[in-house]
């Protein structure tokens, strides 16, 4: 290959990595506040008794691996309440936050028997789960 082709290649490679950097900057998770995510991670220990979010294990509740934008009531083999199975909900960050703030108020008939969380705690846990997508 003639030598003069190389600088062009190098410039193309540099341009490509700049483009990649620019694309990464627009990823939504970079907008998450790391302190809030860290707080959410700590608060998630309260959920972890019932919800695995690493190995897709079924505990008292269904696993929450990739729960963001998952359809509600869809983990196969998990015995959901009728309310959850028929809810037709998708776990957008907004729906997730509202559900854990007030499970029975948001989805009457759910089997998830916990008191609601404070709004700022529900938001932190939601950001933590978002950061794991
Ligand atoms: C005492 C056990 C328990 C705790 C603690 C608990 N959950 Fe649940 N969760 C459940 C059960 C049981 C269900 C299934 C509800 C149903 O079928 O109505 C559920 C369902 C869910 C779902 C729906 C999942 C799906 O597949 O549709 C989400 C999301 C969820 N919980 C998030 C959380 C978060 C976040 C926390 C911590 C703030 C939490 N849960 C704490 C027991 C628990």
From TrEMBL:
InterPro entries: Cyt_c-like_dom, Cyt_c-like_dom_sf, Cyt_c_1A/1B
Keywords assigned: Electron transport, Heme, Iron, Metal-binding, Signal, Transport
The keyword Heme appears for this protein: yes
Domain Cytochrome c stretches: 35-133
Span of the signal peptide: 1-22
Superkingdom, taxonomy of origin: Bacteria
The protein's name: C-type cytochrome
Organism: Azospirillum oleiclasticum
């Amino acid at each position: 290959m003639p030598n003069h082709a190389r600088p062009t290649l190098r410039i193309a490679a540099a341009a490509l990595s700049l483009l990649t950097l620019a694309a990464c900057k627009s990823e939504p998770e970079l907008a998450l506040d790391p302190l809030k995510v860290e707080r959410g991670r700590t608060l998630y220990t309260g959920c972890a008794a019932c919800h695995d979010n690493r190995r897709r294990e079924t505990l008292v509740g269904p696993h929450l691996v990739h729960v963001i934008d998952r359809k509600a009531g869809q983990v196969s083999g998990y015995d959901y309440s009728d309310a959850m199975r028929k809810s037709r909900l998708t776990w957008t960050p907004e729906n997730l936050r509202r559900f854990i703030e007030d499970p029975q108020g948001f989805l009457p008939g759910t089997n998830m028997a916990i008191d609601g969380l404070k709004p700022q705690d529900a938001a932190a846990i939601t950001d933590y789960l978002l950061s794991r997508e």
